[in-house]
Amino acid sequence: MTRAAVALGSNLEDPEAQVRKGFEEIAALPSTELLARSKLYRTAPVGLADQPDFVNACALVETGLAPRALLDALLALEKRHGRVRGVPNGPRTLDLDIDEGGLKVPHPRAHERRFVIEPLLDVWPDAVIPGMGPARNFL
Fold first, then answer.
1. Which of 14, 18, 118, 119 has the fewest CB atoms within 10 Å, i.e. is most exposed?
2. Can 122 be counted among the known catalytic residues?
3. To the nearest 10°, the Cα dihedral for 21, 22, 26, 29?
4. pLDDT by residue (tens digit) across 9-65?
C-alpha cells in the first residue's frame, strides 16, 4: 500500500457538493482507503481571474493501485463530473490536479499553491514534497 494525497478543487455546479462527492468517489476506488479529508477552503482563482472562486480540499489515501492505474481512475472521476479540459486554469466541475499529458508525482507546482499546501497539511502534517522538502515550509 502507498500513501498518497489527492488535491480536489471545483468552482462550477455547486463546488462544495462536487468536492464532497469527489471524496466519496475516491474512497470507493478499488484497493484504496480514504484515511482523511481536509476541511474545505474557498480560494480565489489563480491565473484566469474572471471566474468564480474555488472550493479546494485534500484527500489522504492508502492505495494498492499502481501510479498509472490511480491516475486513470482519478481522470475517470473527473470525466464523470463533466470535467472539460479547455482553458488552462479555467473553470471546472472537479479538478484532481492531474497533468493530462502524463503522471507527475508530485504535481510540479504543488509547492507554489497555498490552496494545495493548506489542505495537504490538514491531512498529512508531516508531508514531504519529494525533491522539495517539508510541505509546511511552503506556506
1. 14
2. no
3. 70
4. 999 999 999 999 999 999 999 999 999 999 999 999 988 889 999 999 999 999 999
